[in-house]
Amino acid sequence: MSKNYSTLGLSKKIYQNVDIKILKKIFDKMSYCREFENNVKKYKDLGIINNLVYLSLGQESIGASLSYVFKKPWILFQHRGHSNYISFGGNQKKLIDELIGLPTGSNKGYGGSPSIQDFNKKILGHSGLIGDHVPIACGLALKIKKNDTVICFFGDGAAEEDYVLAALSFAGTKKLPILFICEDNDLSVLTPTSERRNWNIKDVANSFNINSCDITDDPLLIINKANHYKNKLPA
């Protein structure tokens, strides 16, 4: 997902025939995720949460939209994964406890904000190292049941790691049932993409025989593309 606003014309056409109830469900989920993150920040500022937190503010639409298309996929995401965790039904009580550092947390209080899982919901999440979950997602996709799907979220910074690129190549070669989502905010910490590389992740994915596109994070545009690619994986 990027700032590619050239796709908004297509999005307008999609909105003309949309069921308003679908939009409301997605917006409700996005709003819930935003309010959850606002409260995390609030309690972090108050000192109730003493550990580091990695907020997913501004990334709510992607998980909320994809959860409408994929009902029970396997989920792996980057360190800013709270919204994706919530969107796909992760146990929120365990998430809160993990943020506080309690033994009742999703990782018994040891992982904190970047390392959250809920195996009951097929959410494997992230372990903390940038992009390390991408090859793990490929290994999972290699062994899952027929008609099952893996969704792997990662950032544009992680896309530059050698093991991520190798994993993408492997997924394309083996035609794995995996949907890769690159959440691209044009920054790796504070360094813009233009100062880091002169290639586009979409072009690299295409070179690995992975169906890909570059769109902005408009909910119905995400749904449209997800429906288009879900039977053409890897994408």
TrEMBL record:
GO MF, any single term: pyruvate dehydrogenase (acetyl-transferring) activity
Cofactor: thiamine diphosphate
Pfam families in alphabetical order: E1_dh
Record's keyword terms, sorted: Oxidoreductase, Thiamine pyrophosphate
Swiss-Prot/TrEMBL GO biological process terms: pyruvate decarboxylation to acetyl-CoA
Ranges for domain Dehydrogenase E1 component: 32-214
Residues of the signal peptide: none
Name under which the protein is recorded: Dehydrogenase E1 component domain-containing protein
Organism: marine metagenome
Taxonomic path: unclassified sequences, metagenomes, ecological metagenomes
